[in-house]
Each structure stands twice: as C-alpha cells, then as structure tokens.
Protein: NADH-quinone oxidoreductase subunit M
Organism: Taishania pollutisoli
Amino acid sequence: MELLLIPFVFALVAMIIPQKAVRGYALIGALVSVVVGVVHAVNYVPSAEYFSIVEACTTMMGGKLPFFMKYGYDGIGLTMVLLTNVIVFLILLSNYDNQSIAASKKFVALVFFMQFALLGVFLSLDGLLFYIFWELSLIPVFLIFLWFGAKGKRRALMKFFIYTFIGSLAMLFSLIYIRSYAPSFAIEDLVAAQLTTVSALWVFGGFFIAFAVKIPLFPFHTWQPETYTKSPMAGTMLLGALMLKMALFGMIRWMIPLAPEALHCMTEVIVILGGIGVIYAAIIAIKQNDMKTLFAYASISHVGLIAAGIIVLSLDALTGAMVQIVNHSFVAVGLFLAADIIDRRLGHRNLLELGGIAQQAPKFAFWFAVIIFAGVSVPLTSGFIGEFLLIKGIYGYNWMYGVLIGTTLILACVYSFRAYQLSMFGPSKGFEFPDLTWAEWLSFFIVAIVVVFLGVYPQFLIDMVEPGLQKLIEIVNVK
C-alpha cells in the first residue's frame, strides 16, 4: 500500500511547502518512491500463483480488505512500478533548471498525483479500480498541458480530450459487459468468465479502442504529434515515457486474458495496424525538421512494433515487448530532454537552423549519441535485445510481417542520425551553446546507465517478467 500512499501524500504536501524548497522537495519525494520500489523488487520472489502478493496483503488485513480494493503485482507489474518511479524522478531531475516549471507547486503536485494514478493502474487487480485509476491519470496530464503548454495548445488539447474520452467510454462498456458474465470485477473472476466468440469480440474491441488510442496505434494516432509538440517538455515526457505504457501494459494484463477467444480474429488485424504505424510514422519522421515532432513520430513507430509483438503472444515477442517498453521509456526521456535543452538555450528546435553544437557542448553531444544508439537498437544497448526478440517473435508468427516490420531498424537509423548530424555537426550558425548543467548531466547519465546495463545484462529484466508472461500464455491456451 505504501507504493500508492507515498506519491499521494507528497502530492498533497507539495501545495503547502515553502516556495524556495519546491525543487529539492520534488527530488526527495521521487527518490523515496524509487527506494521503496527497489525494496519491493529485492524482496520479490516469483511464484507459480498469478498474484500471490494479493493473498499476502489480504491476510495482513485480517481478510477484511474490500474486494474492490484488491491490488498487487507479479513481475510484470513490479517492472512497471519500478519504471514509473525511476522515470518520475528523471522527469523532475531533468526539469530542475526550468524554473517556470520545476519551482511550481502546482506542477510538482500534479506530477506526484500522476505517479499515484499510474501506480494504481499497474497495481490494480479489480477491473473497476483499474478503470478509476486509468481515468485519474488523465487529470494531471490535462492540467499540466493546460497550465504550462505552448501557445496554440487549445486545438491539441481538445483533440487529446476527445480521443481519450471516447477510448475510455469504450473500455467502460467492455468492463460492464464482461461483468454480466462474472460474479465481480476481480481479475480472476473476469478471466474465468465463459464468453462466446461474439461476446469476446465486444469485450476485446472496447479494450482495444481504449488502448489503441493511448498507445497510439495507426489510425488512432492523429492526436499525438500535435499534443507532444504543444505540451511542455515534462508533459511530453509523462505522455511518451509512461502514459502510453499504461495501454501496452493493459493489453498484457487485461485485454488478452479477458477475451482470448477473440485473438484468432484480431491478431492479424493488430499486427497489420502496428506494421503500418511502424513504417508510416518512421517515413514521416524522416521529413520532420522540428526535433520534438520528429521524436513524436519516432515514438509512434516504436510502439507500433511493441503492440504487434504483444498480440502475437509468443514468449519471445512478449519478452521483447517488456524489454522494449523499458528501453523506450528511458530513450524517450533522453530524446525529449535533448530537444528541450536545445529549445531552452536557443529558443527553437529547427534542425535546419542548428549545427556545430558538438564543438561547444561535447558532453551534451556524447550523451545524446548514447541515447540515439539505444533508440536505433545498437548492440550492447537495451534496444537491441528488445527489438531482436520482438522481430523474432513476429517473424515466427508470419515471416512476411516480420521482414516488413523489421525495416524499422533501417528507418530509425535514417531519421535518428539525420537529427544528430544536423544538430551536432557541421558549421556553427553563430550561436552560443553552454554545455550541460549538473542536473542535465546526471539525467543523461542515469538514462545511459540503464540502457547499457540492460543491453549487457538483459537477463535481469527477463527473469523478472518471464514467469508472468508464461502464465498469460497458459491462461490463453486453457481458455
């Protein structure tokens, strides 16, 4: 329970602390959550039971824990909890020098509330509780966008609201519908519900619309580039590094086990949509000159691959998806931080007006290169093992889809190295570019350490998530 309580309490207290202490308070609060998450990870022992942690919590409460409040985690959920806590710390750290945001009580409170909602999504084992936390996560992002977003944000804000609102209604319909086949909203009861193929398609479809919007999958993606561009950098990091991961997690935890009867009808459709998104978004990214917009389309391309890997339901693809979820989160923070550093120093992100930054800021150029390498899946980075397993799993499902989706490796190199070359190399355009501050340097360092560590020793993460993924495959096979 402390995993949820810590960010909630820090969110409340953030509004009453002295103004001059806000930035330090934010880092301390985020670090406390990281430490508590690490303690849970150290003490976690995989079990043959799907969610043995819940039984322990119920026993500790004397068996009186309300069914509605059931929560817990397996290795998959724990991975998402750790990811959320570390990324929130990185977001607050990387924005430390941005006084207009980092020193704002409202901003810090909203980030902690967002962390609380995200952890609720990843820990919920009751369908209605999952939905409540899912909806709660929209509030802080919406307010961050509204209060700190760029000029001309109204159109993007409305599009974001309409898309997510429709997706949420679709998921609520699915939950209410499947509840008519089960005695409660508890995940074990919903999984045990006996659905006809038609009923399963209704349930699957509602969840799919909600998750496809949030990921986002082609053709549900049109809200994302403009929203990313107009949102403040911290909001973009929350969206790209964490919020879309709720949907990928939801596919694994809820959509597939609740309605596996629909898989034989929907698998190929989702693989095709993911494949189209991979290629389409990457080609558009190549043509972008605004660095933030480029990275937004790159994100669509990468998550399309992850979604396709999840739905084919092979152990290789699912494992690769979890590795790539972690990799993409850290890479997204690193890339958007790089774009923000350029924007704050120069007042723009136009690649055609950049050049020669590496001469003035060699530390920035070095760390930016490390993040780029992880993004294009260079060996010894976490991106390599993640994409290798994903493409291997999709290739095993259908070799033609595997080959086509595998082109993401080439296209990612084109748009990533183009962005790096135009910004870091070539003649200077006559501007001054100070090198990294301590907070920026430390943020890049943490991101680089994680992606290199998981690239060298991915088994650390694989051992944590594989038991839960194997259980998911067993559930689908049994039903």
Observations:
- Residues 2-478 form one domain.
- Residues 142 and 157 are 8 Å apart (CA to CA).
- The chain has 23 helices and no strands.
- Confidence is low (pLDDT under 50) at residues 58-67.
